[in-house]
Write a structure and sequence with these properties.
Length: 243
């Protein structure tokens, strides 16, 4: 007896391939939630690669690190990643369970996944400002590295919150919603670092990093808006995408 998924429609490989291309594209273009989440995760993801590719410029030029020592600068962002992951594992689902207990009559709300994103939307730009200006003025090398710990924490808040939110909103179509933001963030992550050194040479480390922080700050209201109006937006007939 052949076993098949209950979601198997029996369509041809050509039809499935076409759907795999069109469905994420439609969600990205016509769903405000997918577009905004893709925009936010693109910022955090692209900035991470910008940071990785400019570490050498910053720590060799500003602090005289040898090429063999620059890798130590990654300790800060690594601590931010790991620490936030541990905290998220301990408290993220507990928060959703608590919200579920306080709202037992209605269905679970995907917006319960957004508080970490709201926190990350504040931490991330502040981390970049802290990192950029402390490196600009050559404060002790441990200070900008401390700033990258906040960057790592903010970045991870973006990632796990956005992924969980999209999965809860789009359920069986969540892979398409996630694919849409993977494409966009990968393009930016591949191209933004190309401008890193030139940006710092023209604007300086402080103002160059501040430019990135200001763009992230411009998007900071998004999770707060979705916390308040997200349910109305995703259930509004105007924003229903036929998949």
């Amino acid at each position: 007896m052949d076993l098949v998924s209950k979601y198997d429609t029996g369509e041809s490989a050509k039809s499935l391939f076409k759907m795999a291309i069109l469905r994420p594209s439609k969600l990205l273009l016509f769903s405000p939630i997918v577009f905004l989440m893709a925009l936010m995760i693109t910022i955090s993801y692209g900035y991470s690669y910008f940071l990785f590719t400019t570490y050498t410029f910053v720590f060799e030029k500003q602090y005289g690190f040898k090429p063999s020592s620059v890798g130590l600068a990654y300790i800060g962002i690594g601590i931010g990643y790991v620490g936030t992951q541990i905290i998220a594992a301990l408290f993220s689902d507990r928060y959703v369970i608590r919200m579920r207990k306080s709202n037992p009559d209605g269905p679970p709300k995907p917006e319960w996944r957004l508080p970490p994103l709201a926190l990350g939307a504040i931490i991330l730009p502040l981390g970049y400002l802290f990192y950029g200006w402390t490196a600009m003025y050559r404060l002790h090398w441990s200070i900008p590295i401390l700033g990258t710990a906040f960057i790592g924490a903010g970045t991870l808040c973006y990632f796990f919150s956005i992924m969980a939110y999209l999965i809860d909103v789009y359920t069986i179509y969540s892979a398409s919603a996630i694919s849409a933001n993977i494409v966009l963030r990968s393009i930016v992550a591949a191209t933004l670092p190309l401008a890193g050194t030139r940006l710092y040479e023209n604007l300086g480390i402080g103002w160059g990093t501040s430019l990135l922080a200001f763009i992230a700050l411009a998007l900071a209201p998004v999770p707060f808006v979705l916390l308040k109006y997200g349910e109305k937006i995703r259930t509004h007939p105007r924003f229903q995408v036929h998949l």
